């Protein structure tokens, strides 16, 4: 059976329980099922295990499933989330999935680099929040879908449209990468460091 994974990250520094609860609703799980997803993998932070445990349904084989979706999660990985995000990339035994993330810049950049559909949900409860502006601008530029907690099934459907027109990251404003160094070259260009 070909797998299709939805990976969700809430980040490392601030709890985002609302996002965890939103992706564990029956409406969202049914939307995953309708789009052929087989797994929901959650990076839930230090307090998210309880939320996951409260939502679990164990099937006849002892696997945690909801609406035919295998649900699993973990606190945090000190090595980063790159490996977890890569399981959403198409491979011999996998269809391309999606990453759903809080709107932290590090998580966004990690997901953009692997070039899979990305849904970003800003955590609006944060003080001095830059997440809304970042999500809206990158959505406007066509790099991601800006999701809303109250309608993630809609964002999931929009990510299927985005999949067909994904843009490469990093963007290039001067034709071929002048530095030949990928993101480092883009950052140098943005900071005004030219050779």
List strands and helices in order, with pairings.
Layout: E1 3-9, H1 17-23, H2 26-34, E2 39-43, H3 48-55, E3 65-66, E4 69-74, H4 82-86, E5 94-102, H5 105-114, E6 118-121, H6 131-140, E7 145-146, H7 152-163, H8 183-191
Parallel strand pairs: 1-2, 1-5, 2-4, 5-6, 6-7
Antiparallel strand pairs: 3-4
Helix pairs in contact: 2-7
Q: If you had to describe this structure to a student in words, what would you say it looks like?
A:
It is a single chain. This protein has 195 residues and is of the alpha/beta class. Helices cover 36% and strands 18% of the residues. The chain is built from eight helices and seven strands. The protein has helices at 17-23, 26-34, 48-55, 82-86, 105-114, 131-140, 152-163, 183-191, and strands spanning 3-9, 39-43, 65-66, 69-74, 94-102, 118-121, 145-146. It has a seven-stranded mixed β-sheet with strand order 3-4-2-1-5-6-7, sandwiched between helices. Strand 5 (94-102), helix 5 (105-114) and strand 6 form a beta-alpha-beta unit. Helix 2 runs parallel beside helix 7. The longest helix has 12 residues, at 152-163. It is globular, with a radius of gyration of 17 Å. The model has no long low-confidence stretch (mean pLDDT 84).
